[in-house]
């Protein structure tokens, strides 16, 4: 079974040339990055709760801190930015794969078309149209391979970004709730009293 799969892969590389080989390597890299980020997101509960992982550890510094809320807000906001940067580390690779794979596929198609028309020219008047047709479908195969690699990578990037955005909103809300619990939990009448007291 594995030998048949390996033979099919080698035949595909022989047909599409080095462009197909590069696209296959990019697909393996993209799959590895996606699995790695899925594990990280699951361990950190990204998008579900801000109480776990590195973000939760940062928010724990609010409890028992003797510094003013403004100072804590500035310091912890900077730390949260660093935490979000670590969570998003590696997604740039998926973005590059989503952008480069279609271009590589198009590049392979152009090379294949050039080769097909060169073969047709060398055959001169005895050219067989089937040779041209065969060269064209092989050339177009690289475009299809590029899209097969790029589309899942683009979908994954969008999904990871949406989870990170949700996680950031949860963390920001948790930070504000920890810094100003009286304001967050105050009843409507209490909030009016707070505004009046602040105005006076």
From TrEMBL:
Domain MotA/TolQ/ExbB proton channel, first and last residues per copy: 65-167
Q: Which organism is it from?
A: Tritonibacter multivorans
Say which domain of life the source belongs to. Bacteria
Parts forming coiled coils: none
Q: Tell me how this protein sits in the membrane.
A: Multi-pass membrane protein
Which UniProt keywords are given for this protein, alphabetically ordered?
A: Cell membrane, Membrane, Protein transport, Transmembrane, Transmembrane helix, Transport
Q: Which family does it belong to?
A: Belongs to the exbB/tolQ family.
Which residues does UniProt assign to the signal peptide?
none
A single GO BP? protein import
- Its GO CC terms? plasma membrane
Q: Does the keyword Methyltransferase apply?
A: no
Which protein, by its recorded name, is this? Biopolymer transport protein ExbB
User: Which residue ranges run through the membrane?
Assistant: 20-39, 93-114, 134-160
Query: Is Cell membrane among this UniProt entry's keywords?
Result: yes
**Cellular compartment(s):** Cell membrane; Membrane
């Amino acid at each position: 079974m594995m030998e048949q799969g390996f033979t099919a892969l080698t035949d595909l590389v022989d047909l599409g040339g080095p462009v197909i080989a590069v696209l296959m390597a990019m697909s393996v890299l993209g799959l590895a990055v996606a699995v790695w980020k899925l594990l990280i997101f699951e361990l950190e509960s990204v998008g579900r709760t801000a109480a776990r992982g590195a973000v939760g550890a940062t928010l724990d510094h609010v409890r028992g801190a003797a510094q003013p809320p403004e100072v804590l807000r500035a310091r912890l906001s900077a730390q949260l930015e660093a935490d979000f940067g670590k969570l998003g580390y590696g997604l740039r690779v998926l973005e590059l794969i989503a952008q480069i794979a279609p271009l590589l596929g198009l590049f392979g198609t152009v090379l294949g078309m050039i080769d097909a028309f060169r073969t047709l020219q060398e055959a001169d008047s005895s050219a067989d149209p089937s040779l041209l047709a065969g060269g064209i479908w092989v050339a177009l195969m690289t475009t299809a391979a590029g899209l097969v690699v790029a589309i899942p990578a683009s979908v994954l990037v969008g999904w990871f970004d949406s989870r990170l955005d949700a996680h950031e909103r949860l963390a920001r809300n948790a930070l504000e709730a920890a810094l100003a619990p009286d304001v967050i939990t105050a009843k409507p009448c209490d909030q009016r009293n707070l505004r009046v007291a602040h105005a006076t």
